[in-house]
């Protein structure tokens, strides 16, 4: 009798343990058979958390809308987002966790260096990956399963030089960039090429690294001594906030022009946002736009998260709708394996056109290389908010007087 009781207890404990373990791993027994499993990765804590949380939240709004509207061909979306703290090793660990959970499609990663590491794994696993904001061409190089919603680094550098030239924003340009970061150095390289081809005068190119990103007085002094009236900053908002503060302390007041990594500077803790007045940047999204889609998204985001969405939130929103469109185009179903879904979506991604928040009237389209085709927007920070420069110029002076409007925007 004792042996029978003992055996029964062991069996009960074993079953209980298995049940408890399955709750953490997301085994097939607990999966929703009529749902697509989308996993997300990005920094929700740490120095780059502004990016990760925005991308996470923007995607959540899109997923809620899709599920409430009946899903994707009747199938719901299950969504789980993992924090990688902008660290490549942690991002790889997060990817493995999501695979155990049952992920069929990866949304992420949000930042470039972790995305490069994870993209190698999704390529090996043949899992469809769409990143809202990792912009290096290394993310998509030699891969057929990875797609970007953001501009690539070369495009950002080229477009920035074009905009500065076409709007007569500077006569002498200084550059401060992070040579240890593929995002920053990639944009800088292409900016210089385009600037030279247009006859723009780059008078200083000063680098820093991840080990020296708290003191920029030397770089600023060299730019000032060279007479730079515009500083191009292809960097993230944390370092940009320090540069603006130190430039102010020096009494140096050039025009500052950034790219998408600058987005987030208005939310840096203890940063005097008045120092960002007049800062310009290229971005795919302007929260003050008055089209119905943007107004609806901004309203929902502010109600749910208590702040105005940045471009990373908008890119994340568009990424989810791109996934939806590609799944529908491919005729994919939740019972398919991640690899089969990937095979079906690779072709579908090149066939869809998404009328998203971050494109123009032509929508968002993708090439076989994974690169997105869409147009950037220029914004300037005025009174602590982003204001679309092109719409402001047209309203103030008409299209024939753009240079005067640009001067007003700088002031």
Automatic annotation (TrEMBL):
Leucine-binding protein domain sequence ranges: 37-360
Keyword Signal (UniProt): yes
InterPro entries in the record: BCAA_transport, Leu-bd, Leu_Ile_Val-bd, Peripla_BP_I
Top-level taxon: Bacteria
Range of residues in the leader sequence: 1-19
UniProt region (Disordered), positions on chain: 391-411
This protein's UniProt keywords: Amino-acid transport, Signal, Transport
Biological processes annotated in GO: amino acid transport
Low complexity composition bias: residue spans: 396-411
Similarity comment text for this entry: Belongs to the leucine-binding protein family.
Protein name: ABC transporter substrate-binding protein
Lineage: Bacteria, Bacillati, Bacillota, Clostridia, Lachnospirales
């Amino acid at each position: 009798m004792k042996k029978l009781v003992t055996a029964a207890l062991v069996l009960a404990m074993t079953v209980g343990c298995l049940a408890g373990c399955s709750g953490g791993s997301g085994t097939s027994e607990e999966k929703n058979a009529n749902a697509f499993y989308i996993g997300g990765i990005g920094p929700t804590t740490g120095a780059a958390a502004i990016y990760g949380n925005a991308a996470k939240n923007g995607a959540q709004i899109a997923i809620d809308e899709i599920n409430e509207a009946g899903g994707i061909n009747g199938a719901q979306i299950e969504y789980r987002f993992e924090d990688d703290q902008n660290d490549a090793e942690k991002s790889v660990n997060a990817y493995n966790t999501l695979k155990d959970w049952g992920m069929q499609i990866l949304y992420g990663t949000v930042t470039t260096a972790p995305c490069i590491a994870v993209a190698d794994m999704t390529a090996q696993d043949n899992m469809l990956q769409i990143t809202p904001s990792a912009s290096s061409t290394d993310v998509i190089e030699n891969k057929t399963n990875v797609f970007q919603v953001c501009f690539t680094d070369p495009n950002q550098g080229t477009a920035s030089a074009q905009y500065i030239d076409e709007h007569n924003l500077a006569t002498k340009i200084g550059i401060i960039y992070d040579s240890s970061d593929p995002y920053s150095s990639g944009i800088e390289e292409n900016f210089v090429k385009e600037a030279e081809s247009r006859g723009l005068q780059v008078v200083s190119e000063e680098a820093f690294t991840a080990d020296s990103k708290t003191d920029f007085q030397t770089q600023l002094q060299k730019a000032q001594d060279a007479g730079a009236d515009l500083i191009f900053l292809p960097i993230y908002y944390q370092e940009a906030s320090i540069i603006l503060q130190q430039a102010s302390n020096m009494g140096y007041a050039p025009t500052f022009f950034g790219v998408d990594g600058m987005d987030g500077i208005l939310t840096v803790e203890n940063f005097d946002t008045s120092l960002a007045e007049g800062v310009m940047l290229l971005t795919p999204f302007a929260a003050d736009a008055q089209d119905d889609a943007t107004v609806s998204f901004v309203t929902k985001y502010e109600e749910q998260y208590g702040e105005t969405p940045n471009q990373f939130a908008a890119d994340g929103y568009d990424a989810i709708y791109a996934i939806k469109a590609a799944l529908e185009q491919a005729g994919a179903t939740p019972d398919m394996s991640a690899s089969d879904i990937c095979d079906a979506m690779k072709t579908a991604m090149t066939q869809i056109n998404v009328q998203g928040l971050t494109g123009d009237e032509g929508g968002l389209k993708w090439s076989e290389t994974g690169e997105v085709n869409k147009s950037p927007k220029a914004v300037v920070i005025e009174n602590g908010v982003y204001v679309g420069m092109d719409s402001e110029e047209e309203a103030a002076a008409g299209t024939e007087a753009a240079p005067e409007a640009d001067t007003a925007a700088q002031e």
